[in-house]
Amino acid sequence: MERLEYTAVGLGSAIKSGKVTAEAAVEAVLARIKEKESALHCYVTVDEEGALTRARAVQKRIDSGELTGALAGVPVAVKDNLCTKGMRTTCSSRMLAGFVPTYTAHAVQKLEQAGAVIIGKTNMDEFAMGSTTETSAFGVTRNPYNEAHVPGGSSGGSAAAVAAGECFYALGSDTGGSIRQPASFCGVVGMKPTYGTVSRYGLIAYGSSLDQIGPLSQDVTDCAAVLTAIAGHDDKDSTSLQREDTDFMSALHEDVKGLRIGIPRDYFSDGLNGEVREAVMAAAKVLERKGAVIEEFSLGLVKYAIPCYYTIAAAEASSNLERFDGIKYGYRTTEFEGLHSMYKKTRSEGFGAEVKRRIMLGSFVLSSGYYDAYYLKALRVKALIKKAFDDAFAKYDLLLGPVAPTTAPKLGESLADPIQMYLGDIYTISVNLAGLPAISVPCGTDSRGLPIGLQLIGDCYQEKKILCAAYAYEQQRVFE
Amino acid sequence: MANMISDETIDYVGILAKLALSDEEKEQAKQDMGKMLDYIDQLNELDTSGVEPMSHVFSVHNVFREDVVTNGDGREETLAGAPERSGDTFVVPRTFEE
Questions:
Q1: Is residue B89 one of the residues assigned to a domain?
Q2: Contact A157, A123 (CB under 8 A)
């Protein structure tokens, strides 16, 4: 894969030293977008003029010494479910096709304060519901490693854009694996932080108790730099954590001696592709040679994570998406008779099939008579899953496993059988249920040349352990 | 399929979800939901008696602040996004019959 000349942090220091300007960096990205975008379709919106204008303004602030951070002047792509004031934000849905937010998401604001230059908004599964970016109302994104394959999802546009050099790094959101799985499929780094680490203010909600914003980047160093920039308490998100330990760059060293890493045996059962298994186990060996203590164990409850997740996520989605009613913003149907007909027609025409499927399921599991049997049951199982992780982290610093059971499937193969598609989330989903941080780091390719991702999972607040192990692995990695 | 979803149930869920489904979509929804509920029924293999439902992984309490307006007047920008407006108001379909 043809990467850009610089990583995000590399570009930041090149800009600081005067070797490159922010404007030239934007021009390099725009040139790459011109070359690749017609084949890949990573973006819903590319704001060419705006990006160049912002780059010139940022450059002035760098020259004057006002902006000194690691990411000052570096172009970024933002997933299209993060609100950007004055820039169309669609969630890849017909419902929000013309929606221009009046405010900017907190995470994006933090990047802007750090001098980031927003290039545009990336394609995604509609309202982040999907694992392939094929449910987008604006067409599919293709995997840069093989255009016949999906980039993963739901942050597929962000992952593909980073892989193809159509941006230096990107933001995504992860509700059940939506950062880590596309990162794995596109051979880039993707991280979901501990729930509450990054404010969800301005993130268009899907499953509020599960949603977290995080970086997709070219390497682990960039990942740490971006996470450092976007983490932090926000009064506007009532679930935002008070954390002081958000200098994630300090974790970038190779000392993993004595680090206890558990490999859940249940993550290596029948459903796992042989090539993925080999690549992930080889990565474990690399960390072992560097001094980590690797041990297999049984995590338990793994197969219950998917039905538990889809019950909770659908329930929250049905509630969160009630706001799309054709009154204050977004799509409104043209012909209707009265208020209720307007609501129903607007929503039926505005939402795609997967979104409607989840809203229906969510409305059902929350309805009286079924609430206890389905929704509360799922919340009880969630408590058991959390407990299983608590027990694991009493013994281990990190858990290591695959991100997904296979490499990227072909376009068109996934949507016909939803449950089969949901099964692909088996290794990522329980991390969201338990609120844990986890990363996907490239660890090889299969015989067809498609990337494989290594997942490292930490206990809550333990991003630094994850980043350290990921960095140590990245330094030793020899597959490329 | 163990969970047979009736027409009445689909109609009722359609009302809750505020979705108008075509006959074809209703049939599909019955299939999809039945299969999904069969799948979710696996959770019943687990004994959860005595387990408190966990809505949040951290113990989160209500977060209060003073009721002070901090954002400016965004009226024009907000109304600019309305599907239909009249002056400074949103236009909505008639809500009550005469």
A1: no
A2: yes
The CA radius of gyration of chain A, in Å to the nearest whole number, is: 21
Residue A110 annotated to the active site: no
Is A178 assigned a catalytic role?
A: yes
Out of A92, A93, A136, A154, the active site residue is A154
Decide: A231 and A265 in contact? Cβ < 8 Å: no
- Domain of B37 in residue numbering reads as 7-43
Average pLDDT on A202-221 reads 97
H-type alpha helices, A18-174? 22-40, 48-63, 106-113, 156-163
The C-alpha R_g of chain B, in whole angstroms, comes to 23
Any A CB within 8 A of B64 CB: no
Q: Where are the beta strands (DSSP E) in A285-341?
A: 293-297
Please indicate, yes or no, if residue B23 is contained in any of the structural domains.
yes
How far is it between the farthest Cα atoms of chain A? 70
Q: For position B11, which CATH number holds?
A: 1.10.20
Cα angle: A194, vertex A195, A198; to 5 degrees: 85
b/e per residue A154-176 (b: at least 16 CB within 10 A): bbbbbbbbbbbbbbbbbbbbbbb
Residues in B touching A336 (Cβ below 8 Å):
93
Please name which of A385, A75, A113, A65 lies closest in space to residue A234, comparing C-alpha atoms.
A113
- Return the residue of B nearest to A341 by Cα: B20
Query: Tens of pLDDT along A270-311?
Result: 889 999 999 999 999 999 999 999 999 999 999 999 999 999
| Percent above pLDDT 90 for chain A | 95
Does B24 map to a domain? yes
- Residue A340 tokens read as 């209720």
Q: Is residue B19 part of a domain?
A: yes
- A329 contacts B43? CB cut-off 8 A: no
- Chain A residue with minimal CA distance to B65? A235
Domains recognised in chain A with CATH numbers: 8-252 (3.90.1300.10)
Q: Token pair 């005469």 is at which residue?
A: B98
Catalytic residue among A178, A199, A217, A440: A178
Hey, are the CB atoms on B81 and A329 less than 8 Å from each other? Answer: yes
Number of structural domains, chain B?
1
